[in-house]
Amino acid sequence: MRFLIITGMSGAGKSQAVKHMEDFGYYCVDNLPPILIPKFAELCNQTQGGIDKVALVIDIRGGLFFHDLFSSLEELENIGIEYEILYLDAIDETLIKRFKETRRNHPLAGTKGISEGIKKEREYLAKLKATAKNIIDTTKLTPSMLKEELRNIYVEGNEMDNLIISISSFGFKHGIPIDSDLVFDVRFLPNPFYIQELKELTGNDIVVREYVMNSPVSVEFSIKLIDMVSYLIPHYIKEGKNQLVISIGCTGGKHRSVTIAHVLYAALKEKGYRPILTHRDVTLSGERKKE
């Protein structure tokens, strides 16, 4: 029996995750009191294979019951039931935005606000996160991207390296993405903006990408960029980093940055990684983005 415990930060996507796991044939229970976990596991075992995949969502909504979790996990080990923990996380800014959009209160916010609730929750969950087999940072993930990540791990059986690689193009005139880990400036590459028939197109169009890459400088830079990022990724994984945000910028975020982002994305996919590709400013006008 595969016994999965889904936990993590409030607002990080646990409810979405358990819906996806149900689609994958898991018997799912949301917000089961931790003290009941061993008894529930025994009941599942007694079905003699009738229930062979289980996913439980356990988090701080359980209040005082949450403190029973570690003793329950120890009891699982004592009765010979193997389990694994999936931990969902996101950066604070994203969690705050999600709570505001849904108009929900954070379970630990009280009268001190969402930020304080998130801070408390991170403290409560630190030990649990350290024991997780897989950690997924959902900051940049849509529900469909999360489902694909879960499918890769729990259906197709691919090992997860616990590093979400996000590649994003942007325009410097609209500001550098605040969550960037690596920022690359490609404003030195040939600019399609000054070619009349390319000006209104973007790096999502083949003709624009061909124009940008039809330059020895662009080709050489791409080779060096791919080589450097490929070198860095295993070291980030070794250090336990959960998300790597690579931002590639040109002036407006429509042509050169989009092109190089596509090139890097394709190269990393070919190397076996599962990067996420986004283009922040590709549809914006020439006006500066308000801070």
Q: Overview of this structure, please?
A:
Helix 2 (37-45) links the parallel strand 2 (27-30) and strand 3 (53-57). The protein has ten helices and nine strands. Helix content is 41%, strand content 17%. Residues 286-291 have low confidence and may be disordered.
What is the fold-level CATH name, i.e. the topology of the largest domain?
A: Rossmann fold
Which architecture of the largest domain would the CATH scheme give at its second level?
3-Layer(aba) Sandwich
Overall residue-averaged pLDDT value: 89
Largest sheet: 5 strands, parallel
Q: Which stretches are low in confidence, meaning pLDDT under 50 for 5 or more residues running? A: 286-291
Domain RapZ C-terminal: 164-282
InterPro entries: P-loop_NTPase, RapZ-like, RapZ-like_N, RapZ_C
Protein name: UPF0042 nucleotide-binding protein
Binding site for ATP: 8-15
List keywords for this structure.
about 290 residues, alpha/beta, Rossmann fold, five-stranded parallel beta sheet, four-stranded parallel beta sheet, elongated, disordered C terminus
Sum this structure up briefly.
This is UPF0042 nucleotide-binding protein. The chain has 291 residues and is α/β, with parallel strands linked by helices.
